[in-house]
Design goal:
InterPro entries: Acetyltransf_17, Acetyltransferase_Eis, Acyl_CoA_acyltransferase, Eis_dom, GNAT_dom, SCP2_sterol-bd_dom_sf. This is Acetyltransferase. Keywords: Transferase. GO terms for molecular function: aminoglycoside N-acetyltransferase activity. By secondary structure, the protein is of the alpha+beta class. It is about 30% helix and about 30% strand. The chain has 12 helices and 16 strands. The two termini are about 25 Å apart.
C-alpha cells in the first residue's frame, strides 16, 4: 500500500470514490467547476500495488479561534473507501499519515465531522462541538421591542463588512473558523438566503442575520449579534415575519439563554453533537494556548498517552507563568503514574479540557483522568472557560 498526495490526473478517480461513498451525483455541467476547484495537494490517497485508488481523505489547511487566538488547524474531510478495500487498514494509515503531515505543517489541532463518533475516538478525536437547535411557532417568537439604530437588508453581500462582524462574534468562542474571503465566496454565500444587518445609533454594524424563507418556514443560516441591543433588534426583525411563516428554525451555541428570556419558553429544543477535535502536537499546542493568568508560577506533572501520535506520549512538567504562558517540558527520566502528584490522561481528555470546555474536575469525577484533587484543581484554574461553537461545515 502506498500513501501519497493525489495528482491532477486523478481527479476522476477521486470524484468517483466520493460520489459512491457519500451517495450523490455531480451534474455534468458542474464537473468542470469541480475540476478547477480540485486541489490535489490537499487530497491524500491509499493506493494498491497496481496504483488504483482504494481510500482517500481531504486535509484542509484552515484556522480556528481558540481562547481569542488564531490556531492553524487541519480539517479532515471526505474520508472514503471502496467497499472491496474496507477493513484493510486504509483509513487508519491515512489518518496516521495525516497527523504526521499536520504536525510538520505546524497545525497543532485537527477537526472533523464524523460519520460515527466511536470510530474517530479510536484515533484520538473527541467531541468538542455541539449546538442547540430551536424551532419556534410564530406566537412563540421573541417580543418585538423598539431599539436604537436600524436594520438594513443587503441587496449584495459585502464580505468585508460581514466578516468584521463575524470575527468580533466568532473570536468569543472556541472552535469557529477564521474565515477568508474565499471561504465566504465558496462556502457561505453559496447558501440560499439574504442578509439583514443591524447598525447602532452611531451607524456601527454590530450584528447580522442570514436567512431564507420557503414553504412557510424561515430558516436562519447564521445569527451573529455582538451585544444585547443587536440581539433584541435582530429578533424583532425576525419576529416581523410572523404572518408569513409557520415555523422558524435556528442553531445557536450550547449555552444560549434565549428560552429563559421568552414569555413562553416551551419551544422545541434539540442538542446536536456536531464536530470532533484532536490536539495534534501537545507541546506546540500548549505553548500557543492562552492560559489564565495566576498570582505566581505554578506547575503540575502530566503523564500523556496517544496511541496514534507517538510524539505526544510521555511524562511532562506543565508549567505556567503568572502572565498565563504555558510550557510542556518533557521529563527524560519520566514519572510514575502511581505518584499522587501526577495527572494521567490520554490525548482525547486533554483535547476535551482545552478545546471542548470539559472541566478537569468533571473528567476526574467520571474517571477520564486521574490525579489528586488538589492538582486537578490547579490545572482547572489555568484553563479559561469558553463556550464552543462552529457555524461552518467542511
Amino acid at each position: 500500500m502506498e500513501i501519497r498526495q493525489l495528482r491532477v490526473d486523478e481527479f476522476e478517480s477521486r470524484v468517483a470514490l466520493s460520489q459512491f461513498a457519500f451517495q450523490y451525483q455531480v451534474a455534468p455541467e458542474q464537473m468542470e467547476a469541480r475540476r478547477l476547484a480540485f486541489r490535489p495537494e490537499h487530497d491524500w490517497g491509499a493506493f494498491d500495488e497496481q496504483g488504483a485508488l482504494m481510500s482517500a481523505l481531504l486535509l484542509n489547511p484552515l484556522e480556528i479561534w481558540v481562547q481569542g487566538k488564531q490556531f492553524q488547524m487541519g480539517g479532515v474531510a471526505g474520508v472514503a473507501t471502496w467497499p472491496e478495500a474496507r477493513r484493510q487498514g486504509c483509513v487508519s494509515k491515512l489518518l496516521v499519515h495525516a497527523l504526521e503531515t499536520m504536525r510538520n505543517n505546524g497545525q497543532t489541532v485537527s477537526m472533523l465531522h464524523p460519520f460515527a463518533f466511536s470510530f474517530y475516538r479510536k484515533y484520538g478525536y473527541e467531541m468538542t462541538l455541539e449546538y442547540k437547535q430551536y424551532k419556534f411557532e410564530p406566537h412563540q417568537l421573541p417580543s418585538r421591542t423598539e431599539t436604537p439604530g436600524q436594520i438594513k437588508r443587503m441587496t449584495e453581500p459585502n464580505i468585508e463588512l460581514l466578516n468584521s462582524i463575524y470575527t468580533a462574534y466568532a473570536s468569543r468562542f472556541n472552535g469557529p473558523l477564521v474565515r477568508t474571503p474565499e471561504w465566504w465566496k465558496d462556502r457561505v454565500l453559496t447558501k440560499t438566503g439574504r442578509f439583514a444587518v443591524y447598525y447602532s445609533a452611531d451607524n456601527v454594524p454590530e450584528g447580522y442575520v442570514f436567512y431564507h424563507v420557503a414553504d412557510k418556514k424561515l430558516v436562519i443560516n447564521e445569527w451573529v449579534s455582538t451585544n444585547e441591543v443587536s440581539r433584541v433588534a435582530l429578533w424583532t426583525y425576525i419576529s416581523n415575519h410572523d404572518s408569513m411563516v409557520t415555523e422558524v428554525i435556528i442553531s445557536v451555541p450550547i449555552d444560549d439563554p434565549l428560552p429563559f428570556l421568552l414569555s413562553d419558553p416551551r419551544i422545541k429544543q434539540e442538542i446536536v453533537p456536531y464536530f470532533m477535535s484532536r490536539i495534534v502536537d501537545a507541546q506546540g499546542f500548549v505553548a500557543q494556548y492562552p492560559w489564565a493568568e495566576g498570582l505566581q508560577e505554578e506547575e503540575v506533572l502530566l503523564s500523556l498517552t496517544d496511541a496514534h501520535a507517538p510524539w505526544n506520549n510521555g511524562s511532562y512538567r506543565l508549567v505556567w507563568t503568572a502572565e498565563g504562558a504555558g510550557q510542556l517540558e518533557a521529563l527524560e527520566d519520566g514519572v510514575s503514574t502511581a505518584e499522587k502528584d501526577v495527572i494521567s490522561c490520554d490525548i482525547q481528555s486533554l483535547t476535551a479540557m482545552l478545546l471542548g470546555n470539559r472541566r478537569p474536575s468533571f473528567l476526574l469525577e467520571v474517571g477520564r483522568i486521574s490525579g489528586s484533587v488538589e492538582n486537578v484543581a490547579r490545572l482547572e484554574r489555568h484553563i479559561p472557560t469558553k463556550t464552543t461553537f462552529l457555524m461552518d461545515f467542511f
